[in-house]
Amino acid sequence: MAPTRIRGALNIGFQMMITIGILIANLINYGTAKLEYGWRVSLGIGAVPAIMLCVGALFLGDTPNSLIERGKIEAAKKMLQRIRGIDNVEEEFQDLVDATTAAKDVEHPWKNITQPKYRPQLTFCSLIPFFQQFTGVNVVATVVSIFTVDKFGRRILFLEGGIQMFVCRAIIIACSLSVGTMIAMKFGVSGEGSFTNGEASLLLFFICAYVAAYAWSWGPLGWLVPSEICSLEVRSAG
């Protein structure tokens, strides 16, 4: 559905909605935690977005690709004109028709993706989502990715985010070890001790920097890159 020039940014909107949902859910849980039946309120509120999703689906049209696949060529063209806001969509429409025709000729995508020539795509489609889910999420920094992914490219964000995460994690571990050693030497095994305001603030800063790096790189790009790197022969499997 998305125009090519902003497809990356709109794709990342998926990750943005996830982070906003997590934030809102935590705020609701925090607000209802002290209520006697707070857990029921939290659980009940979860029905609100579910109802919105179901009602919204009633007004959601088919994609041009889906209509073409089902042989509804004229309806597909009208839908493309509607979502692009212009009448002259001949070039893009023909590209969609050609791609759909080529996709129908593909057989055994799961078998194809195991071939040696598709090993890089299989690796990316498997390991990027794995390592993405192996870390965490955040809202604000995801906005950075939305505004930069189509301008600077996917690779730059991956590299910058990965390096920033590595550096921040190393500093967090180093700070934790040094502070932990100080507490152990001063308070023994009693478990009584505390960070100074400076130590706590420094540690919190690097934790936030780490999460921010994830949120504008591995978080949203984990959905975007696998969807872009596969050819027609293996796209559905990838």
TrEMBL record:
Gene Ontology MF: a single term: carbohydrate transmembrane transporter activity
KW Transmembrane (keyword) present: yes
GO CC field: membrane
Keywords: Membrane, Transmembrane, Transmembrane helix, Transport
Keyword Amino-acid biosynthesis: no
Protein's cellular compartments: Membrane
Membrane topology label: Multi-pass membrane protein
InterPro entries, per the entry: MFS_dom (IPR020846), MFS_sugar_transport-like (IPR005828), MFS_trans_sf (IPR036259), STP/PLT_plant (IPR045262), Sugar_transporter_CS (IPR005829)
Main location: membrane
Domain Major facilitator superfamily (MFS) profile: from-to ranges: 1-238
Transmembrane parts of this sequence: 12-31, 37-60, 127-149, 161-188, 200-218
Family affiliation: Belongs to the major facilitator superfamily. Sugar transporter (TC 2.A.1.1) family.
Protein's UniProt name: Major facilitator superfamily (MFS) profile domain-containing protein
Organism name: Sphenostylis stenocarpa
